[in-house]
Design a protein that fits this description.
Layout (H helix, E strand, L loop, with lengths): L4 H19 L5 E2 H11 L6 H13 L3 E8 L2 E9 L1 H25 L5
Antiparallel strand pairs: 1-3, 2-3
Helix pairs in contact: 1-3, 1-4
């Protein structure tokens, strides 16, 4: 059974949000580093076209904060890190992820054994 388009988009967006928040959990990271690491650690296609708008939205909603740091090799770089609100959201995301996945599996008929 094919996953409905709206659901597929929500899954992809939710998964990317979770991955970004998890990667930022313990340290600030440079944007390009996030793109590279997400590409290496997930099966999702990540690029500047998909990740940077997501980082912008997470920043606007107060889950992620940015800082600028001088770079010896060029212009200042923007680093991303979790806010207190972002840490709480990640904890909630982790607790709800199993319930969310199970609900999706039920909808698309791929329940885990």
């Amino acid at each position: 059974m094919e996953i409905p388009t709206g659901l597929a988009t929500a899954l992809r967006r939710g998964t990317l949000e979770f991955c970004v928040l998890a990667l930022l959990e313990n340290e600030e990271r440079y944007g390009v580093e996030l793109v590279t690491q997400l590409g290496a650690e997930t099966a999702l296609t990540t690029s500047e076209g998909t990740l940077y708008p997501l980082l912008s939205r997470l920043r606007r909603t107060g889950l992620v904060a940015t800082t600028w740091q001088e770079s010896p090799a060029g212009p200042p770089r923007r680093y991303y890190g979790l806010t207190t609100h972002g840490k709480a959201a990640l904890a909630h995301f982790r607790s709800e992820w199993v319930v969310f996945r199970d609900a999706v599996d039920h909808i698309v008929g791929t329940e885990h054994q």
